[in-house]
Design brief:
The complex is a heterodimer of chains A (about 260) and B (about 550). With about 260 residues, chain A is of the alpha/beta class. Chain A is built from ten helices and ten strands. Chain A has a domain at about 5-90 and about 160-165 and about 190-250: 3-Layer(aba) Sandwich (Rossmann fold). Chain A has helices at about 45-55, 75-80, 95-105, 115-125, 140-155, 170-190, 200-205, 225-230, 235-245, 250; strands at about 5-15, 20-30, 35-40, 60-65, 70, 80-85, 160-165, 190-195, 210-215, 215-220. In chain A, a hairpin with a 2-residue loop joins strand 1 (about 5-15) and strand 2 (about 20-30). In chain B, helix 6 runs antiparallel to helix 7 (about 185-210) and helix 17 runs antiparallel to helix 18 (about 440-470). The chains are: A alpha/beta (about 260), B mainly alpha (about 550).
Chain lengths: ~260, ~550
């Protein structure tokens, strides 16, 4: 299912939306069992890349394989071995958490008592016990995010795409997601491709980080390497140095 | 001092005219000029020509004079309901509590919010009034030869009616929105209410179309004096009578006063009182309306219980993942108030037509003659609830579905299966009602239910295919939603009717008697049944193609 231990390989991947060049000549390799962090400013092309790699969007040019399958011709095979946590929750407001997860399980060809047991355990683990039969319309955004995390992992994917997994979570839930990722990667060889703006989360969880700016991959390496190469004290400073974004005090007050 | 109401009104107007934002002023000017030309020049000219050609005014005038007060009340009620409920229905499709937070956090006075949102809406509704009012009022102005001053006064009253009613509607909208809150549940209830309101408008509209004389007679009754629309209509009647140019005699005017009951002065006081009262009420209550209460009424947590016998039955019949998909899809559909409201709307539309036809006491009304019309109405019931919304809530939901292998295909197929189950009720309810109302035989009932179910499914498949090709998610105000509903309903209905027209043209064109062939095939007296079967065949072929292309469209990756 992997190609010489590589789960994601892209060669000159490009995506254009009319005049916007969202992804530029992306060449990337992600090893099996690794936790790849994809950093970049808003609109840098992170979500577009994830959508192409998970078989939801066509690239304009270039090639990519995911778990050994071609993104242009073997999309269903890719979907069968990957899980996707989208950027915003697309839940059914009139289903309960259990019902929604049953729906996702059924879409992936699973049902029955084994699925139900797995759903119960996951909801317990994520702290949703006692609320699992409430309609999702009454859930807070953090609770919805937890349901989405559960739906992504439900079918035991070999590769998980997480688009902003902790953006709506409180610190305790973020820590829980972090632990789940680390345990799954270590114990089950699951690979993770994580898009995030939270540099501290990426620094703690990921073993490889790629920084995307205006559609192009500008930096690749372990968090430590990136910090050392930029001569900064942490990944946030390194990110700001690479992408830009430091605003001096004079500019900060210029609007007054 | 900054006039905050003006800023709000400007923003509302900008939202309203966003589609023509490049040349907002120019297009607005053109639209108003066209509307004014229509009102002042075209409408009187068309009426004069048409009425002159069909009924000379000296023939028509006595008739118009007799039904004038009752008819004016009917027209007034129609206009009032549209102005009151249409904006309310539109606004409920998009809860805007989030904007109130911005207003209130910027220390805007609540009465400024009320005034600003009202004035913002006036741009569109005044256009509607300018277009509609002359159409309704002109025949009477011509019949009574009302002087220019009288006509100006009449249009003044119509303007007052419009502004007062829209102001009230604006107030009611804010009130309902505040109670529902900006939540998923609140939005659902709001959309269901919007649909229920549409039914209230539809019924008098049907009345106007089919029962005009009866309705005018009914509206002449004193009981209708309690309706504000009656006061406005009566004032228009009084102005037309007072400023008439046909020399009404004292006894004729006395005749009108016995029908109108209240004299001009009392009617004027009631009209002005109503307008001032609603303005005062809305401004006085503004502080209590624009409150953001963390959704007390909307933060109701619904906990699902054990599955009912039908859902358990589905699981027993279809034990695999497909059965689970049918069950979850069914739950999602029937738990949404807006879907149930659309079903109710469709059922009322389907049942009201035969009821009206029976009330009109048409002698040749036989089941076998009506079956084609009934089948067409049943396909409407099938198309309505499943077109536009109720399919996918958001693009993100589609991403999730698409991220499963063959996810979109499994989703659409299971959705169709669950909708086919819901459609059993949609075919059964009107069939049973019509069985009793039309005194059908058991065989006729079986024909209606059988063909009706096929028609409902045909409509449902059409709507599902159309919506899958162009999903509009939850946005009921979007052009995509309007297009989906219109296309689904028209395709579902006209595919059946189209078969009939095709037969007519083929018969004329080829000289072969297709109607005779159908009558021969289905037996004597069953020609309409045969036409219905032929129509349904065409409808199903179109629906099948639409579903197939809809699945392909939803399954393909974004480009």
């Amino acid at each position: 299912m992997t190609n010489n231990g590589i789960v994601i390989q892209t060669r000159g991947l490009n995506k254009r939306f009319d005049t916007v060049h969202a992804v530029r000549d992306l060449n990337l390799e992600v090893r099996a069992g690794s936790r790849f962090g994809f950093l970049g400013p808003n609109g840098a092309g992170k979500t577009t890349t994830v959508r192409i790699l998970s078989g939801l969007m066509k690239q304009t040019s270039g090639d990519a394989t995911v778990c050994g399958y071609d993104v242009s011709t073997q999309r269903d095979s890719i979907k069968a071995v990957t899980g996707l946590l989208p950027e915003s929750p697309g839940l059914y407001s009139k289903l309960s958490a259990v019902e929604f997860l049953e729906f996702i399980g059924a879409l992936n060809g699973r049902n029955g008592s084994a699925l139900n047991r797995r759903i119960d355990i996951m909801l317990d683990m994520l702290g949703l016990e006692g609320r699992q039969n409430d309609l999702l319309e009454s859930y807070s955004s953090g609770m919805k995010q937890k349901v989405l995390v559960a739906s992504t992992l439900l079918s035991e994917p070999k590769l998980v795409f997480l688009d902003e997994p902790t953006s709506r979570l409180d610190p305790a839930a973020s820590a829980l997601v972090k632990d789940i990722i680390l345990v799954l990667a270590q114990e089950t060889e699951t690979s993770f491709f994580i898009c995030s703006h939270q540099t501290s989360f990426v620094e703690d969880v990921c073993d490889v980080v790629g920084i995307l700016n205006e559609g192009a991959l500008v930096t690749l390496g372990s968090p430590q390497e990136i910090i050392e190469n930029t001569g900064t004290k942490d990944l946030e400073d390194a990110y700001l140095k690479i992408v830009g974004g430091h605003v001096d005090r004079k500019t900060l007050l210029a609007w007054r | 001092m900054v006039r905050t109401w003006l800023a709000i009104a400007t923003a509302e107007f900008q939202v309203l005219t966003s589609s023509m934002r490049r040349n907002r002023k120019l297009y607005t000017g053109i639209l108003y000029t066209l509307a004014l030309v229509w009102a002042v020049v075209l409408t009187p000219m068309i009426y004069n020509a048409v009425l002159g050609a069909i009924f000379p005014m000296h023939v028509l005038r006595p008739m118009l004079m007799v039904i004038f007060p009752g008819l004016m009340r009917t027209v007034g009620l129609f206009l009032w309901l549209i102005l009151l409920l249409f904006p309310l229905s539109m606004a409920l499709q998009e809860i805007k509590i989030g904007q109130w937070e911005i207003f209130l956090s910027n220390n805007v006075r609540t009465r400024d919010i009320m005034t600003g949102t009202f004035l913002g809406k006036m741009g569109l509704y005044s256009l509607i009034i300018i277009a509609l009012a002359p159409l309704l009022v002109s025949p009477f102005m011509l019949a009574f030869e009302v002087s220019i001053v009288g006509q100006l006064l009449v249009y003044g009253v119509v303007t007052l009616l419009a502004m007062g009613t829209i102001w009230l509607s604006n107030f009611l909208t804010a009130l309902v929105q505040a109670r529902l809150g900006d939540s998923s549940r609140g939005n659902d209830i709001a959309k269901a209410l919007a649909m229920a309101i549409a039914i209230v408008v539809i019924i008098p509209m049907y009345g106007l179309m089919f029962f005009l004389p009866t309705l005018s007679e009914m509206m002449g009754m004193n009981a209708f004096l309690i309706l504000p629309s009656t006061w406005f209509s009566d004032l228009i009647s009084w102005i037309a009578i007072t400023f008439n140019g046909i020399g009404l005699t004292g006894s004729q005017i006395m005749g009108f006063s016995t029908v109108l009951q209240l004299d001009m002065l009392v009617t004027s006081v009631l009209v002005i009182g109503f307008v001032l009262g609603t303005v005062g009420l809305a401004l006085g209550a503004a502080d209590r309306v624009f409150t953001i209460e963390a959704g007390v009424r909307t933060e109701v947590v619904t906990t699902v219980g054990r599955e009912n016998v039908i859902l358990r039955g589905i699981r027993k019949v279809s034990t695999g993942p497909f059965g689970s998909l049918i069950v979850t899809n069914t739950k999602d559909f029937v738990r949404k108030a807006q879907n149930l409201s659309k079903i109710g709307y469709g059922l009322i539309l389907a049942i009201i037509m035969p009821i009206i036809m029976m009330a009109m006491d048409i002698e040749y009304l036989q089941f076998n003659e009506m079956i084609l019309m009934l089948i067409i109405m049943m396909s409407l019931i099938g198309a309505m609830p499943f077109a536009g919304t109720g399919f996918l809530e958001s693009k993100d939901q589609l991403w999730i579905i698409q991220s499963a292998p063959s996810g979109a295909s499994r989703f659409v197929k299971s959705r169709i299966a669950s909708q086919a189950l819901i459609s059993i009720a949609l075919a059964l309810i009107p069939s049973v009602i019509l069985y009793f109302m039309m005194n059908l035989t058991v065989l006729e009932f079986a024909k209606l239910l059988g063909l009706g179910y096929v028609a409902v499914i045909g409509g449902m498949l059409t709507a599902t295919g159309v919506t899958a090709r162009n999903p509009n998610y939850e946005d009921t105000k979007s052009p995509a939603h309007q297009a989906n509903v219109m296309t689904s309903v028209l395709l579902a209905e006209f595919s059946i009717m189209g078969a009939m027209f095709a037969d007519i043209f083929l018969t004329i064109g080829t000289g072969i008697d297709f109607f005779g062939m159908i009558a021969d095939f289905f037996g004597p007296g069953n020609m309409m049944v045969g036409m219905a079967v032929m129509g349904l065949l065409v409808q199903w072929i179109i629906a099948g193609v639409l579903v197939w292309s809809g699945i392909r469209y939803l399954s393909r990756p974004d480009s």
